Structure to design on (202 residues):
């Protein structure tokens, strides 16, 4: 559990996590990140924010947002204090974290914000749009990922590395398995595996 922060009148601040990604599709690696973050950070609420289009994958033709969202709903159904935030798919276009974090900060002006990212994204943080402003608004929490160097949070970002067990799952490999008709039962929650069978997305 993180140390509780206090606001100017001495009350304990709510802690809110933000976990963005393309989730194309959601998999057990994402579910692990959500679970570990809720527990280790003692979050009051975790917002899962599917992107309309990632700035880092501008050419990627993603599965339709409605399908990615439906699979996320199924994957996260059992996770308490975890909810979908559809602001990026509703804004459409390229999704920038600074817009998302500003909107969350407006919605929860008294909260301490934690932005979750996998270790593969940590080194790119200084290149994110309005990086300095972003670094001011949230604490960055890096989740270890197999094949990635021991993660660090680059300047000027403040943050920490989550302990969670690294999980060797990526959406790219999962899409390849689905396209090849290989079993995916170990890669996604059972309800997601069932839904993927009928959706024919990849
Ligand atoms: P792709 O393979 O299509 O690039 P992905 O599996 O990395 O996708 P994203 O939706 O891009 O999934 O990831 C959203 C966030 O979750 C990113 O910050 C990413 O680093 C993190 N993440 C994804 N899979 C894992 C995992 N197995 N362990 C830790 N973090 C992960």
């Amino acid at each position: 559990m993180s140390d509780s922060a206090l606001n100017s009148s001495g009350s304990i601040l709510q802690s809110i996590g933000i976990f963005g990604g393309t989730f194309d599709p959601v998999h057990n690696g994402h579910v692990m990140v959500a679970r570990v973050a809720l527990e280790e950070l003692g979050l009051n609420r975790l917002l899962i924010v599917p992107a309309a289009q990632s700035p880092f994958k501008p050419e990627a033709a993603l599965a339709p947002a409605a399908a990615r969202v439906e699979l996320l709903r199924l994957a996260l159904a059992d996770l308490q204090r975890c909810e979908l935030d559809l602001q990026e798919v509703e804004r459409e276009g390229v999704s920038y974290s600074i817009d998302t974090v500003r909107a969350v900060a407006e919605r929860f002006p008294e909260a301490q914000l934690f932005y979750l990212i996998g270790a593969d994204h940590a080194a790119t943080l200084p290149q994110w749009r309005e990086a300095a402003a972003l670094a001011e608004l949230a604490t960055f929490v890096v989740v270890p990922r197999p094949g990635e160097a021991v993660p660090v949070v680059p300047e000027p970002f403040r943050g920490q590395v989550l302990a969670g067990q690294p999980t060797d799952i990526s959406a790219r490999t999962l899409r390849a398995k689905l396209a090849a008709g290989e079993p995916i039962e170990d890669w996604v929650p059972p309800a997601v595996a069932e839904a993927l069978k009928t959706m024919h997305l990849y």
In short: The beta strands are 15-21, 45-50, 82-84, 112-118, 139-143, 159-161. The first strand starts at residue 15 and ends at 21. The chain has one domain: 14-199.
